[in-house]
Amino acid sequence: MIIYQVKQQKITGSNYLEIVKKARKIFSLIKTKSKRRPYIRSVYFDKEKIFLDVFWSHLNQKNPRDRMRRLKYYARSIDLIKNTKNKPKSIINRNKRSEMLHKFAGITKMGDLFFVQIKENKKTGEKYFMSCFSEE
User: Fold this and answer.
1) Residue-number span of the structural domain to which 34 is assigned
2) Which end of the chain lies in a sparser environment, N or C, as judged by fewer CB atoms within 10 Å?
């Protein structure tokens, strides 16, 4: 798997409320650009839409400490999804054969390694930004 060097900085903050506020602001800017479901276009997937709404429901299933850790990588993840041309590690979901999971790797200028998961529905071809997390 080839690692993409992101240009965005980590979302900073000392508590969960500060970090979620900054991440929601980034999400709101993207959301205002579309009339229906918020999405970004990915270079790797030939400018296809990657829907962002599933990330927030997936994030709410995590504990608060894990949410904060993942939200710090939100801006970097958006940058990676938009701009990477590197091939991800793709596997078929064992629980649902109609889904494929794509795992992209990114690294920051400071050397922090993180991963972004995108779920693809093989029947409809829709892609969803599922998760972002560090290597820890």
Assistant:
1) 3-134
2) C
At 58-68, the pLDDT tens digits run 999 999 899 99
Going by their DSSP bridges, the two strands 89-92 and 48-51 should be labelled as unpaired
As given in the structure block, the two tokens for residue 31 are 């959301």
Instruction: Classify residue 13 as left (phi > 0), alpha (psi -120 to 50) or beta.
Output: left
User: Coil, strand, or helix at residue 65?
Assistant: helix
- Assign 81 to helix, strand or coil: helix
Residues 115 and 107: their CA atoms lie apart, in Å, by: 9
Backbone angles phi, psi at 103, to 5 degrees: -115, 110
Q: Which residues contact 111 (CB under 8 A, 6 or more apart)?
A: none
Note the residue count of the chain: 136
Reduced to 3 states (helix: H, G, I; strand: E, B; else coil), residue 37 is: coil
Q: How many Å apart are CA 79 and CA 74, to the nearest integer? A: 9
For 110, the token pair is 């400071």
Looking at the whole model, is its pTM more than 0.85?
yes
Total domains in the fold of the chain: 1
CB 112 within 8 A of CB 10: yes
